Amino acid sequence: xxxxxxxxxxxxxxxxxxxxxxxxxxxxxxxxxxxxxxxxxxxxxxxxxxxxxxxxxxxxxxxxxxxxxxxxxxxxxxxxxxxxxxxxxxxxxxxxxxxxxxxxxxxxxxxxxxxxxxxxxxxxxxxxxxxxxxxxxxxxxxxxxxxxxxxxxxxxxxxxxxxxxxxxxxxxxxxxxxxxxxxxxxxxxxxxxxxxxxxxxxxxxxxxxxxxxxxxxxxxxxxxxxxxxxxxxxxxxxxxxxxxxxxxxxxxxxxxxxxxxxxxxxxxxxxxxxxxxxxxxxxxxxxxxxxxxxxxxxxxxxxxxxxxxxxxxxxxxxxxxxxxxxxxxxxxxxxxxxxxxxxxxxxxxxxxxxxxxxxxxxxxxxxxxxxxxxxxxxxxxxxxxxxxxxxxxxxxxxxxxxxxxxxxxxxxxxxxxxxxxxxxxxxxxxxxxxxxxxxxxxxxxxxxxxxxxxxxxxxxxxxxxxxxxxxxxxxxxxxxxxxxxxxxxxxxxxxxxxxxxxxxxxxxxxxxxxxxxxxxxxxxxxxxxxxxxxxxxxxxxxxxxxxxxxxxxxxxxxxxxxxxxxxxxxxxxxxxxxxxxxxxxxxxxxxxxxxxxxxxxxxxxxxxxxxxxxxxxxxxxxxxxxxxxxxxxxxxxxxxxxxxxxxxxxxxxxxxxxxxxxxxxxxxxxxxxxxxxxxxxxxxxxxxxxxxxxxxxxxxxxxxxxxxxxxxxxxxxxxxxxxxxxxxxxxxxxxxxxxxxxxxxxxxxxxxxxxxxxxxxxxxxxxxxxxxxxxxxxxxxxxxxxxxxxxxxxxxxxxxxxxxxxxxxxxxxxxxxxxxxxxxxxxxxxxxxxxxxxxxxxxxxxxxxxxxxxxxxxxxxxxxxxxxxxxxxxxxxxxxxxxxxxxxxxxxxxxxxxxxxxxxxxxxxxxxxxxxxxxxxxxxxxxxxxxxxxxxxxxxxxxxxxxxxxxxxxxxxxxxxxxxxxxxxxxxxxxxxxxxxxxxxxxxxxxxxxxxxxxxxxxxxxxxxxxxxxxxxxxxxxxxxxxxxxxxxxxxxxxxxxxxxxxxxxxxxxxxxxxxxxxxxxxxxxxxxxxxxxxxxxxxxxxxxxxxxxxx
Length: 1096
Prior knowledge:
This protein is mainly beta. Helix content is 8%, strand content 33%. A hairpin with a 6-residue loop joins strand 29 and strand 30. The two termini are 27 Å apart.
């Protein structure tokens, strides 16, 4: 994420701009002392860019788990848009269009609010703060205090609801944080607030969706200007004497989670219905069978409109075209926001009659009135009936005598409703096949996997007809009409028939695009490889593919992808390219770093204007910096050839001197820490002449996401090795989500270096250099002062109102980011059954699961042993909340170690990363030491520690330091239901394990003992859990009364009420990323049982 800058400039054009757009994404600025060598710069963010001539939202962070709220925040008559995101921030889109044609343009990904506080002298201060609720921000706007402007509420991953009071006004909103826990309400996680008057008392009530899948309603016990929402209370002793409504549970979508409620009058009956997005990508629809004074929601569809996004879905309804039929927006697990237009069925059908002028119809009127208006345009009754009947597909042999007889041919049932609609008439019954066809089209159109065009549906709608029996007499048909229409009204009340008609309009409403597609770890370099005067770019990626783009814009940038075979995926992984003329032939070659720490040379065998790269050397100069090499080329020693700087995974910048020539380089190691500093990991250096002298300085990215600024004033002697100075460790306080990779170059041709930044998620952020700040400008710092109802700026000279459009620079104190501290206290686990076929996986008999992030994508992957002796590797798909797995191998690490394989990931060697131990039917233990790091595992087979260890048939290992000697000991469960204890002893040739006890704790669990070490209750102390073939689980916790070596006592019976599978193999892992351990059990049948921990 791009965190807030220390200080920054705001270009003011109106009071609203001051309030809403004063964020660290508008114009960032670094202030320094009065020194020409320490300049300050204005950086202007660029969110939009062109790809092949088309404008896209190109330079942003992820918009995963978007929650959209439309609100006219500036009171200009059109709705603006706020978007909560998974990163806990709020993005703001201003409506640059108008009431009838909205055009949303991103202004910031880091919406800013105000915090009140005290300075060192206890004087009141105001501090601008980037709104950050941690994760999964869910915004909602409501005038909760009835003062005529919108207040802001934000749900969050931890279940809090943040409240920001609007102390500005309708034209100039100013949001002050009032509390991070609104009304003391806290929920199970992923709280999603929605406000509406649900009981007709003119006071706003509160609806809350939660991570557990529950949706709660809190009726307002207060008044319109002072809300009171009460938690469950005793009537005799309420927490507030005004409490009169108890909270109610509306629904529980279990086994799905992450309920996202949305209120909408879907059936046009003047009361609010309810839809709820779910974690599986589908939506529940609850029809309000009550009224606007006493709602009664009834579930009538678990697959509303057959929508399926494949992961978390957050529905938002908004009537964009003001026809009283709302459009639907869906936030998803990815950055894609899906948009459905609501083409109301009657207007849609009338649009096919060229003689009908739709703009003259009252779209908000009733069905009958619109038909009547259309009829008048068609020369009135009875002449209009013929035209209308033909347009609505009425068979030629059926005579229509009145307008009401058209309804059965216009309205059709929504087949996503669970209610089975009665057959309306013999006519509609005989037309059933054609209706089904229309329903199938709806399923395909609303499915997330569909790519069919909307035009096909339009054509099918034109051809739809409801045939009738030609032998039926006219009189009989006319006699049936009232009954038909009465049945239609009945189906309307049941929610089966509505005038709504959702058509897929866009799968990418914001037009978000990534230059490297779905790749992760974007690493950028630039150079003009076709000599057209514009910088082209290369993007490295996690897969190793290098993406090439030519800039073909007359001004600015317009990226066109160019494909070269040598840049495709190979064995390089985590490619980190640098462009330079390595061989001195006048064209640009490529040196690329990779995960293995080596450097690959790709020579340009084309020309200076048409490159053609080929792989020339996969390990140039035999360089090896360990892992994650990031090269940079520059003449460091002033001998007119290119020397080499290489960042690596340990945070070092290593210097290799070119001791060859300009045309035949040979790089020799000279210094392993050129700047004298070491970052915390994964140094990614780039050059930039920061202080405008002739010597390039360094901006260095790292694993934590920060940027370090290192200046260079080289002496005459040893210019490459000396003269480096760390100016600031957190330059501009910029922080990406991790693995920041900066690049500075002049992309817009104004002779000033612009700034691009890649990160581990594959995002690319871009700032234009708007010029150096004059020192006198940095001194003119204005002060925020609080008046009665809005924020004002105190200026040295007051300007006239008519000059407010003039450019004004105002510097504010450093914005900070806010997060509510997470609670660390112990929490008893509570396991709830979710699924007996988690992930729909078939893993082979006697499945034994283990989880680790194998591929470094921050998603837990699955390693599973089985009776056949396989060690399968399933990769978890990106953004796969509901667990979509891809089988990558049946023999992970080429395992062939015997039947009943039992993998366990644990830190055996105490180096803070997870090693792999595998038990088997023979009773031995096989060991792979992790030579990688916390982010990327690198398993190396090491049989030495377990020579002589035999734990008994069907061995299952667990690791813990039992005697407090600083060395991990070994517990091994076996088929006989016993646990062997091995103590670790250090000997001259390395650590080994010696058998100490054959029946540890004197336990005998029957058959198949499975020991597990885990902290179930978050008390930072290990617990011993023992599973068995009988499907029983015992657990023990540390006995605090016995100091020294570990002693156990029975812990609470966490598993007593659970129905566990016989022959199960349990493992504990935080599968849903909520901070506590869930329970996964591999079964004898080869499936996984999933029990979610809801204790927190």
